[in-house]
Specification:
The structure is a homodimer.
Chain A lengths: L12 H13 L5 E8 L9 E2 L3 H9 L5 H9 L5 H8 L6 E5 L4 E2 L6 E6 H5 L2 H25 L4 E3 L7 H13 L4 E2 L2 H7 L9 H6 L3 H12 L4 E3 L5 H12 L5 E4 L4 H14 L6 E4 L5 H6 L7 E4 L1 H4 L9 E9 L4 E4 L14 E8 L2 E9 L3 E2 L24 E3 L1 E6 L2 E2 L5 H13 L17 E3 L1
Parallel strand pairs in A: 6-7, 6-11, 8-9, 9-10, 10-11, 15-20
Antiparallel strand pairs in A: 1-5, 1-12, 2-4, 3-5, 3-18, 12-13, 13-16, 14-15, 14-17, 18-19
């Protein structure tokens, strides 16, 4: 954690060389609109989950080039002095609109729209993508697990399987998607995510016997604690646990073996010993499929590690940040798009709505806004005549998806994490039933461009 | 990057509750030895690469509980006051041995051995695993790509596809494994990794024509720059590029399409235009397999993004941190091991050697050290009679793998990153030929426990 506080160098070298050349050509100060979107959802997923928005806003406020950063760039000869002068005074002064955190998204959804000069907007590409790609990948996987778990709570416990700072963001993203708590203390400290945990196998091995270990845990963590029962022999451990704790033991945890079979055995044993209120928690290489397969087993809670922090097979959301419109020499904002084979982009500033029928999502409506003089269109969709303003009345039967996050460089879209979590609950509840199939398939609703 | 400077909360809740209960039972101060190892290599890989060792040493020095951390733990009621008192005075005072950074490893290799009281060693589990699991996953994938690329250089450019801080560590790990440079500026600033990059499609789209964009780039970044030629039409772009830059153009980059076919076309065009020295760089969803498939194509360099930062299908190295020995009530260090189904551990402190025949690695020799009085064995393998000291003469035909990293809480194993990079080059060169098959198979050398 020797990371300096400015986020400005969490950036690709080429953003700065592009800036240098564009300052040279004069094009750097052209108005430019960049859009974050996914070309497709990974692995035939039915929907994605926007996460990291709040972290982008935090990072944007830290995105300044201080003396140390400038000195590094000078010493490493990354860019010339004119560019260093520009960077020393850099402060994003444009606008950002985006899908609110926790919202579901689909291929082509304009998840975030950054509107400023080319110079100020291009510099943000790497950082914005890093945050949204990581956090959305975790939230998208987590949401499927939450759905598979039904009413049963899930603890996120994958910190040890991912980069130490990514672990904190992963805990936050999983919480947005509906996980109940995390093992990660920093996520508790920074984001208020509830933290949980009791003991590992090492605690049992440390003591002279499992009996001694359980006794110590009960003495100092209380009867409501969770005892880990698979260090040696599960049946023996369960008997010892209830013998020492009595029928009010909080929970037992199983971390290995055929979890379905062992959960049944342990539940029967607990009931037979009178510990009918003692919960059974299972952990150990769980993902959404394993959780779904345990739906009929007597399990009261899950702990998920590796699979959630690594996006369950899709560790990045594959979001891209593409220039979709820029000012021409006449001062008009014009759509632009590349034509690269297999990776075309769709030009033009966009706004987006979700069409609903009887409360069920039916369509992701993405409207390309017309060309307009730059002076008439300070933010995407906000003042061009006839096009809908984000947050203003949406077309009948739809709700607007873009909301202001930054205005004139000032963050306006910050919200408590609980709101993102509640928004996700509502957004996912609105999806058609097919959205919850775990098998690969098409996006739950089609994206229609107009 | 609102991350506070102490690494102490990058830790799982249960490490602290275990500490609380062990302080209660008195077992917290027993001498304990934890070992980091992999039960298996992911996806039938032939070898793994240790990376992150240097970052572990940095993090260890930051691992202290300051007032802010203690106050959070008190407010969140994570542990009791006695435990908070212990944490407030916490400073790791034990020993750490480990494989040197860049070294290859195999299933069961004791990559890192942490030796201290249970209290001080258990707290480090999450942080050590986070760092080693992430960095080793990236380095292990990167090493395969470097081998597939032969003499051709690879730029790491995946920052945007992973968490913003993980991106920095990924750039560092890929460099250890032999990548030539990174797009990530922070990795340049923090670790001295060479940075590289010129322009994206947005730069071309920003200008009124590709001609204008190329001219601007050449004017301000110089003729030796790399022009991106697939924004519109590759053949037209190559002609424009050479027309503007002349035959001394540094390179062209292709980011889409059938890279093999396009590379041939572009090479032919460049040669036809007299630009025989202009390099062809390819990027776009490359992994070790795609790189290998381009071996016969006229390519001069690769840029790799998503696949390297996400471990090319194995985003975590699945390393675990297990208690393998601890002091008993009589003051003797005894092996301990769990017997969980499918996840057994192998008790006892260990040391490790690589057996070589004619300079080729043939075996990973892991020796379990005998029980011994705690007073006679301050560090694993160092003073127990008859067992080899790390760094001391190894058995004939072997070289020792464990080296001191921390002694009595003081870091002694820090080294320049270039040494880890060079060590990896030498370590991988020593492996038998089969190690370089990209297809799934057994570990390149067997691990033998004695």
């Amino acid at each position: 954690m020797k990371m300096p506080m400015s986020a400005a160098l969490l950036t690709d070298h080429y953003e700065l060389t592009m800036l240098e050349a564009a300052l040279g050509s004069g094009a750097a100060h052209r108005r430019a609109v960049f859009e974050v979107f996914a070309r497709h959802l990974p692995q035939g997923r039915r929907y994605g989950v926007v996460a990291g928005t709040g972290r982008v806003l935090d990072a944007l406020e830290d995105f300044t080039f201080g003396e140390q950063e400038i000195e590094f760039l000078r010493r490493a000869r990354v860019v010339d002095e004119r560019t260093l002068d520009y960077l020393a005074g850099y402060r994003f002064s444009g606008d950002v609109h985006g899908y609110a955190e926790g919202e579901c998204y689909f291929p082509g959804s304009p998840i975030m729209v950054v509107d400023g000069t080319f110079a100020e907007a291009v510099l943000l590409e790497t950082l914005i993508l890093s945050i949204l790609n990581h956090d959305s990948a975790v939230a998208s996987a987590a949401s499927r697990m939450v759905r598979a778990a039904g009413e049963r709570p899930i603890i996120e416990m994958g910190s040890r399987r991912t980069h130490e700072a990514a672990a904190v963001a992963a805990a936050r993203a999983a919480y947005v998607a509906g996980f109940g708590s995390t093992s990660n203390l920093m996520a508790g400290r920074l984001y208020g995510v509830p933290t949980a945990g009791t003991a590992a196998h090492a605690f049992t091995l440390l003591h002279d016997s499992e009996h001694d270990a359980f006794q110590a845990q009960l003495d100092f963590l209380g009867t409501d604690t969770t005892l880990l029962v698979d260090t040696y022999d599960v049946a023996k451990a369960v008997r010892t646990a209830v013998e020492l704790a009595g029928p009010r033991l909080g929970a037992v945890r199983i971390d290995s073996g055929d979890l379905r079979a062992v959960a049944h055995e342990v539940r029967d044993m607990l009931d037979g010993l009178g510990a009918t209120g003692t919960r059974v928690v299972v952990t150990g290489d769980l993902d959404e499929y394993a959780i779904a397969a345990l739906a009929a087993a007597p399990v009261d809670g899950y702990g998920v590690g590796t699979s959630v922090v690594t996006g369950s097979g899709a560790p990045t959301a594959s979001l891209v940040y593409k220039l979709v419109a820029r000012e021409d020499s006449g001062g008009t904002l014009r759509p632009v798009a590349k034509r690269s084979v297999g990776k075309p982009s769709r030009g033009g500033r966009k706004t987006a709505f979700r069409t609903l029928e009887d409360g069920v999502a039916t369509c992701e409506l993405v409207s390309v806004l017309p060309d307009s003089p730059v002076t008439d269109s300070p933010v995407p969709g906000s003042t061009v005549p006839g096009s809908p303003v984000p947050g203003s009345p949406a077309p009948a039967g739809t709700r607007p998806l873009l909301r202001p996050l930054v205005r004139g460089g000032a963050v306006v879209g910050r919200e408590p994490l609980a709101e993102a979590r509640e928004r996700h609950r509502a957004s996912v509840a609105e999806l058609p039933k097919d959205a919850h199939h775990l098998s690969p398939g098409d996006a739950a609703v089609p994206t229609v461009f107009t």
